[in-house]
Structures are given as C-alpha cells and as structure tokens.
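== Folding task for one protein ==

=== Format: two labelled lines per protein ===

==== Paired sequence and structure tokens ====
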Amino acid sequence: MNLMKSIRKLGAVAGTAIVVSLALAACSGASSTTTPDATPPSAAPSASSTGEAGASHNDADTMFAQMMIVHHEGAIEMADLAVERAESEEVRSLAEGISAAQGPEIEKMTSWLEAWGEDTMSMGGMGGMGGMDHGGMDMDGLSQEEAMAELAGLSGAEFDRRFLELMIAHHEGAVEMAQAELEDGQNTEALALSEQIVADQEAEIAEMQQLLSTI
C-alpha cells in the first residue's frame, strides 16, 4: 500500500515537470519568433558615432567661426548705427537687412564652437577688434573702433557715403575670410555657410556700389 502511494506521488511530480518544461519551451519559441522583428544592435547608428561625425572640424574651421563671429558683430554695430542715422531710405533698408541676416549666423557659429569644445569669441572678448590686422578684419586701414568713431562724427549724405564705403570694405573682408575657409576648412556646415557668405555679401557689395553712385 505504501509502495503504491509512492508510485502515484512520483507520477504526479513527473507530470508537473513535463508541464513546466512544455511551458518554458513555448515561451522560448514565442521569444525567438519576435527577435527578427527587432532592429539588430549593429544596424542602428550609435549616438556617439553620429555626434563625432557632426563635430568633425579642423583648426581652419575653428578660426573661421571665431573670427567671423567678431566680424559679423562689427557689421551689426555699423548697421545699427546706419539704421539710426542714414539719410537715404535705401541705405537704412540695406543696414536693417545686414543686421537681420548676420545675427542668426553668429548664433549658428557660436553653437558650433560650443559643440566642438572650442572657445567662443566676441568683440567684447577681443577689445572691439581694435588694433587687429588680421586678414579681412580692417576697413580702408581702419579698425572697428576707428571706423565707428569716424561714422559717429558724420551725418546726412556724408554719413551714407562713408557707411557704404566702409561696409563694402568690411564685406570684402568677410568674403576673403570665407574663401580661406573654403580652401582649408573641413566641417561641412562651416563650408556651406562660407559659400553662402560669399554669395550674399558679393551681392550686397554690388548693391552698395550702385547706391554709392547715386549719392
């Protein structure tokens, strides 16, 4: 009698083990069927590799962004003065356009420098560019401070004429700096902005030369 109870007990245990085994096999099968639908880890681009590609740059890119920020700030300073003082509506409109276009470009270049881990630059950090003789950073031999001082002493048509002359020289400097970036730079965004600066500022130079002929 005791023997029969033991046999029945062993049979019940074995049956339970078989049920558990079948359940585990079913779960394993369900898991394997869903695996192909998931994106393999190797197929998805890693955040680190994508970030490294976006931040790829060289010394020319860094110098371009740092110096063009300062250069643009100088143009905006001159343009804002022209918005206040220009006699000609055409000159005032041109100045407004320069200020509106170059502000966002400063923000873009600043964001690059921060992403690259490079120092950001500004006129405040460089003493208003006073005394600098870097290529493209002076206007008719004048520093930013000297140009602003001269413009501050003018009014009427004299102001308009001198503003246009100085801004033409300023734009020519920006074109020179952008062309140097196109030759030596590496970062794709910086190169694209350089091309845009060359196109935009050469067009504005032509417009300013036309305005000069009417004053």
Q: What stands out?
A: Confidence is low (pLDDT under 50) at residues 1-53, 127-135.
